[in-house]
Amino acid sequence: VGDRLAGPKEAGARAAANSPLVSFPAPPLMHGAAQLGSFINFLGGGKVCLIRRYTGDGALSLIEQEKINTFTIVGDAMAIPVIQALEEKSYDTSSLLVLASAGALLSQPVRDLINAKLPNVYINDSFGSTETGYNGSAKPGSKASDGLKFTVHERTNVFDDDLKPVAWGSGTVGRVAQKGHIPLGYWGDPEKTAKTFVEIDGERWVMPGDMATVEEDGTMHFLGRGSICINSGGEKIYPEEVEGALKSHPAVLDAVVAGIPDERWGQRVAAVLQVVDGHEAPSQEDIEQHLSSRIARYKVPRFVHVIDLMQRSPSGKPDYGWATKVLTDAVAKAPA
Q1: CATH assignment of 8-130?
Q2: Angle between the N-to-C axes of helices 108-117 and 75-88, in degrees from 0 to 180, rounded to the nearest 10
Q3: How far apart are CA 298 and CA 63, in angstroms?
Q4: For the chain, where do the domains classified as CATH 3.40.50.980 start and end?
Q5: What is the location of CATH 2.30.38.10 in the chain?
Q6: Which of 98, 112, 104, 218 is nearest to 156 (CA)?
Q7: SS3 readout for 282-304
């Protein structure tokens, strides 16, 4: 915050008079968070550092070497290697001011570990998409284990099926939308463009498919992407909410939730788990007991499958197609 610029030329003079911001967008540049962060810092006269192959040691060594100020990751998948590296040896992270996460869940246990290892670093858990850019940040004082709740800016809204704004505190599930500086559409795909970019009361809005409710104070409670929503007996279950609850279990390092075929309910909730080294894999009964006070009973996974290493997309996001296949195959091989 400072004096208003007199003109564009003054921006360059001010940037030259100060040390440039050094940023490190860790995700691949195919990821919106990395692209946006890189161009924001480039245009601000800053320095952008990239890494060819992401590891915890590699990331921390780069932070130490280049005196990085801001470090962008995609949820737990990128945070956990950093925590593990910090447990093995020390690094000079005194230059690091902000750790920003976007695009995937940063669970409460992982957030707590980051706070313990990097107590002077501000954690900014953001919400947005490639189509919208930045929508908002985690509500101050909120915990991922209590649901993904974000304070959004004035260009973001949630619309119901009739394209009317969702009433605050109504509990109605709607689609997250943003107006203003938004893309023209998807290149070469007019059908997808028509579904995603809509006009409401004379204004263009983009709706990538994220679902949410709105709290009484205007806070947006993010539920998940509609395309991966599980329909079990007519009940809608969003994997991200269940994954956040599962990761609060002390033995669970990572979790991906998916729907698998069920003759009675259409789909049932199932989960792939990766267990913390040195911990015994939790039983079905353990999981159900742990989740009983955290999420509604119909959202609790009825089948869990433990693997040695979780597979995620190159950008660190859950690979739901892979998880569905793994779980379906595991159910077929399980004793009747």
Answers
A1: 3.40.50.980
A2: 40
A3: 44
A4: 8-130
A5: 139-225
A6: 218
A7: CCHHHHHHHHCCCCCHHHCCCEE
State the pTM of this model.
0.73
For helices 75-88 and 56-66, give the axis angle rounded to 10 degrees. Answer: 80
Distance, in Å, from the CA atom of 161 to the CA atom of 180, rounded to the nearest integer, reads 21
Token pair belonging to 136? 């908002």
Closest CA to 63 of 27, 90, 34, 23: 23
Both tokens of 331, joined, read 């159910």
Predicted confidence (pLDDT) at residue 133 exceeds the cutoff of 90:
no
Looking at the chain, the domain(s) classified CATH 3.30.300.30 span 229-333
| Domain 229-333: CATH superfamily, name plus number | ANL, C-terminal domain (3.30.300.30)
Tell me how far apart the alpha carbons of residues 91 and 66 are, in angstroms, rounded to a whole number.
Answer: 12
**What does the block give as tokens for 56?**
């915890």
139-225 domain in CATH 2.40.50.320? no
Q: List the one residue out of 131, 134, 63, 146 whose CA is nearest residue 102.
A: 134
Residues 79-98 pLDDT 10s: 999 999 999 999 999 999 99
pLDDT at residue 301, rounded to an integer: 96
Indicate if the alpha-carbon torsion angle 43, 137, 187, 164 is positive or negative.
negative
Cα 125 to Cα 59: distance, rounded to the nearest angstrom: 19
Q: What is the percentage of the chain residues whose pLDDT exceeds 70?
A: 95
Q: What is the DSSP string of 40-72?
A: HHHHTT-EE---SS--HHHHHHHHHHHT-SEEE
> Is 24 within 8 Å of 71 (Cβ atoms)?
yes
Q: Would you give the distance in Å from CA 79 to the centre of its chain?
A: 12
